[in-house]
């Protein structure tokens, strides 16, 4: 049969955000995929010219709703490096706790969306019901459900008291139990396996060459996690990157599923080691110089380049988000797959288009 | 038959969702909700206006007014932390629907005149 060109997106039932792919198919097998981005560009980097460096925290939090606290954390770490501010130890641990809660809710959201992508509606609802417990924790500890606005230059704005700590640890037990109950459904189910095992294989070499990030990279067998660099309090916590070797859709699912448990362990460890100190130090002076700040977001490595010229306003803010890095590997995976597997494949990189386009 | 256990369990357990209009969830303490002001305390210094990242606050010293655009406010709470006299606060609930997209203005004079005609 002759080649047919099928436009995929920007409006597609499986995509919550607009991503367009021009798919060239032959006998329902994808031969070529060309992406088109730019539907939700908001010019947030440009706003650095008219908002001062402290107001920018609230702006970078809105680059992506799902990993808002990690964006703010990355930005604050950059500004702190420029202004030579030493963050108090308690603030470092609290940042880790909120970051890991964010990772958990992001992965549970993704696991639900992924189940929905291959038509498993009830599993989608089960995952999102568990996620709601974490959203409640975030609302109670920070004041907001999604945009956890706790980071400030020099530390954090809010504290977690002993009563709240007990509630969080109790909830972690419940979440752990409930996620484990769903393990056999997502890992061993015949239908789920037929839609994921052996589909969209990204080899170790290709993943490295294409610059994949986060679970997309780790599922291909490369143990690379930005948390290993030891920012915030990660240098004092014990953890190993979750690695899978197959590089297919199933491996990426398992990788994210296991990272939920890793996040639970990290929260427990962080609470066990939580030191007593002040929450924030006052930052003096103005940012001057250049810095690159990196954190591990639920989707992968996020990079901030900041340039200050000694004035209130930053000269340049450049944000490179994990989805931006994961689009080339996606285009590598698509040729050769079935047209019906395209939505599942796109979801396995956990695309966040508003992140990518900022 | 393998579903029997689940079916029985689901019959015995409570609802997964809240019966909403009859049973409402209580808001958590210190939730960042709608921005409110105690106008009699306000000194109209304008610090909140300067700090606001979404530029949704307007302070007019001549008219002695303080206004917030509830549609552009992002509930970050920066103004509440920055206020030198602590006259701003956030309620636990999110804003109520409004008929018109306009600023919610508060006047200092109107407040002080209010008690006069009461007796």
Uncertain segments of chain A are: none
Report the mean per-residue pLDDT of chain B as an integer.
Answer: 80
Which two chains share the most extensive interface? A-B, 18 and 17 residues
Shape designation of chain A:
globular
Main sheet summary of chain B: 3 strands, antiparallel
Element-level helix/strand string of chain B: HEHEEHEEH
Structural class of chain B: alpha+beta
In this structure, how is the largest beta sheet of chain A organized? Answer: 3 strands, antiparallel
Q: Tell me, what is the CATH class of chain A?
A: Mainly Alpha
Strand order within the widest sheet of chain A? 1-2-3
Shape of chain B: elongated
Helical amount among residues of chain A, as a percent range? 40-55%
- Give me the count of strands of chain A: 8
CATH superfamily of chain A: Cytochrome-c3 Hydrogenase, chain B
**Beta strand count of chain B:** 5
The CATH class of one domain in chain B: Alpha Beta
> Low-confidence spans of chain B: pLDDT under 50, at least 5 residues?
111-119
Terminal CA distance of chain A reads: 40 Å
CATH topology of one domain in chain B: Alpha-Beta Plaits
Layout of SSEs?
The complex is a heterodimer of chains A (358) and B (119).
Chain A (H helix, E strand, L loop, with lengths): L3 E5 L11 E7 L2 E8 L18 H6 L7 H16 L5 H29 L3 H22 L8 E2 L2 E2 L5 H27 L1 H7 L7 H7 L4 H4 L30 H25 L14 E10 L2 E10 L4 E7 L1 H12 L8 H7 L4 H5 L1
Antiparallel strand pairs in A: 1-2, 2-3, 4-5, 6-7, 7-8
Chain B lengths: L3 H9 L22 E3 L9 H5 L5 E4 L4 E4 L9 H5 L5 E3 L13 E4 H6 L6
Antiparallel strand pairs in B: 1-4, 2-3, 3-5
Verbal overview:
The complex is a heterodimer of chains A (358) and B (119). Chain A has 358 residues and is an alpha+beta fold. Chain A has one domain: Cytochrome-c3 Hydrogenase, chain B (Orthogonal Bundle). In chain A, 47% of the residues lie in helices and 14% in strands. Chain A has twelve helices and eight strands. Chain A has a three-stranded antiparallel sheet with strand order 1-2-3, with no helix packed on it. A three-stranded antiparallel sheet of chain A has the order 6-7-8. In chain A, strands 4-5 form a two-stranded antiparallel ribbon. Chain B is α+β, with helices and mostly antiparallel strands. Chain B has a domain at 31-113: 2-Layer Sandwich (Alpha-Beta Plaits). Chain B is 21% helix and 15% strand. Chain B has helices at residues 4-12, 47-51, 78-82, 108-113; strands spanning 35-37, 57-60, 65-68, 88-90, 104-107. The radius of gyration of chain B is 22 Å and the shape is elongated.
């Amino acid at each position: 049969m002759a080649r047919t060109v099928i436009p995929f997106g920007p409006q597609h039932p499986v995509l919550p955000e607009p991503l367009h792919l021009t798919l060239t198919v032959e006998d329902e097998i994808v031969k070529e995929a060309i992406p088109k981005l730019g539907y939700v560009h908001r010019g947030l980097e440009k706003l650095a010219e008219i908002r001062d460096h402290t107001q920018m925290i609230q702006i970078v939090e809105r680059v992506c709703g799902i990993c808002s606290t990690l964006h703010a954390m990355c930005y604050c770490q950059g500004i702190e490096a420029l202004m030579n501010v030493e963050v108090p130890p308690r603030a470092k641990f609290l940042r880790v706790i909120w970051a890991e809660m964010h990772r958990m809710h992001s992965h549970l959201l993704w696991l639900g969306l992924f189940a929905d992508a291959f038509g498993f509606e009830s599993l989608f609802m089960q995952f999102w019901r568990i996620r709601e417990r974490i959203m409640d924790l975030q609302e109670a500890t920070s004041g907001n459900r999604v945009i956890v606005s706790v980071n400030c230059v020099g530390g954090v704005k809010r504290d977690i008291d002993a009563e709240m700590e007990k509630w969080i640890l109790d909830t972690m037990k419940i979440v752990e139990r409930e996620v484990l109950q769903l393990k056999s459904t997502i890992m061993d189910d015949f239908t789920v396996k037929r839609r994921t095992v052996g589909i969209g294989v990204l080899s170790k070499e290709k993943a490295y060459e294409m610059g994949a990030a986060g679970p997309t990279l780790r599922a291909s067998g490369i143990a690379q996690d930005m948390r290993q660099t030891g920012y915030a309090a990660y240098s004092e916590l014990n953890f190993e990157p979750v690695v899978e070797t197959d590089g297919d859709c199933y491996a990426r699912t398992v990788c994210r599923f296991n990272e939920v448990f890793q996040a639970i362990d990290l929260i427990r460890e962080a609470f066990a080691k939580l030191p007593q100190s002040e929450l924030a130090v006052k930052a003096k002076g103005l940012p001057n110089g250049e810095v690159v700040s990196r954190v591990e977001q639920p989707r992968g490595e996020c990079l901030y380049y900041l340039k200050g010229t000694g004035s209130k306003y930053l000269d340049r803010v450049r944000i490179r988000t994990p989805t931006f890095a994961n689009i080339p590997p996606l285009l590598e995976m698509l040729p050769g797959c079935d047209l019906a597997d395209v939505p599942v494949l796109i979801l396995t990189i956990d695309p966040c288009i508003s992140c990518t386009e900022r | 038959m393998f579903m029997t256990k689940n079916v029985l369990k689901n019959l015995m357990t409570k609802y997964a969702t809240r019966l909403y209009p009859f049973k409402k969830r209580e808001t958590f303490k210190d939730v960042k909700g709608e921005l409110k002001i105690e106008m009699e305390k306000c000194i109209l210094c304008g610090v909140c206006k300067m700090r606001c990242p979404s530029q949704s606050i307007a302070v007019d010293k001549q008219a002695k007014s303080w206004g917030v655009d509830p549609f552009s406010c992002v509930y970050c709470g920066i103004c509440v932390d920055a206020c030198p006299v602590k006259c701003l606060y956030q309620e636990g609930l999110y804003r109520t629907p409004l008929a018109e997209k306009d600023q919610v203005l508060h006047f200092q004079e109107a407040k002080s005149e209010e008690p006069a005609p009461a007796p």
